[in-house]
Write a structure and sequence with these properties.
By secondary structure, the chain is of the alpha/beta class. The chain has a single domain, classed as Rossmann fold (3-Layer(aba) Sandwich), CATH 3.40.50. A six-stranded parallel β-sheet has the order 2-1-3-4-5-6, sandwiched between helices. Helix 4 packs antiparallel against helix 5. It is globular. The mean pLDDT is 96.
Length: 233
């Protein structure tokens, strides 16, 4: 009997399937793996609706950063289809006015031809401070930025700005949930992961050492181990 579980992975802001490449070898033996396309719409509800229309009937769902915001919207629309949930370097809170203002500035710059410079600035907040001179990680951000494109980036930011507060739905999420973050995530502090784990019904919290906002390429073995345990549980 085939007991495999389809796995649906959702990337984050200005991220493409490349972000999950370091952990895919550990995941594929558990079931077919799909990486969602999240650059086509500019509202969380629309992104989630399209992903659900293309997804298997029931699946394990992992969302990284913006992908976590999308995962929460999937839980609003079709919680019965999610067997397991993983929230990687994300948060349940809505955007703050300060964050929205920063996003609007980045969007304007991306539209005016400064997209590469925006990627440079994001890179510094994405990686652990010790990795800011890591040429391979910087190249990954550039490559994913090209995958998403400036127009896709603007759509993503619009969706992030208008996302709802997901804290009220945490208590209603009953499926086994992994909450993972890095010890020095300077984009979404891990205190917000602790907050989610504390308010979820069935959550395991993992904080990876020497890790920033990109656990898949920064700490691939530890990230894969946490995801494998999540899938086996």
């Amino acid at each position: 009997m085939d007991n495999s579980m389809p796995i649906l992975l959702v990337p984050g802001l200005v991220s493409s399937p490349r972000i999950y490449a370091p952990v895919l070898p550990a995941l594929w033996r558990f079931g077919p793996v799909t990486i969602a396309n999240h650059i086509r719409d500019d509202h969380m509800a629309l992104i989630a609706r399209r992903i659900l229309a293309e997804a298997p009937p029931r699946f394990a769902l992992a969302g990284h950063s913006m992908g976590g915001y999308i995962a929460f919207e999937v839980m609003r629309q079709a919680p019965e289809r999610v067997a397991k949930l993983a929230l990687l370097n994300t948060q349940a809170r809505p955007d703050t006015p300060e964050a929205t203002a920063r996003r609007r500035t980045m969007m304007a710059r991306a539209k005016s031809g400064e997209y590469r410079a925006v990627l440079d600035e994001l890179f510094r907040g994405f990686v652990h401070p010790s990795r800011r001179e890591d040429a391979d990680l910087r190249r990954l951000i550039y490559d994913m930025g090209e995958d998403v494109g400036a127009e896709g980036f603007v759509r993503q930011q619009e969706a992030i700005i208008s996302r709802p507060d997901s804290r009220p739905i945490l208590a209603a999420i009953k499926c086994p949930t992994l909450v993972l973050s890095g010890d020095e995530d300077n984009t979404i502090p891990n205190a917000l992961s602790v907050e989610m784990a504390d308010n979820l019904h069935n959550a395991k919290l993992v904080i990876l050492p020497n890790c920033g906002h990109l656990p898949q390429p920064e700490q691939p073995e530890a990230t894969a181990d946490a995801l494998v345990e999540w899938l086996q549980g």
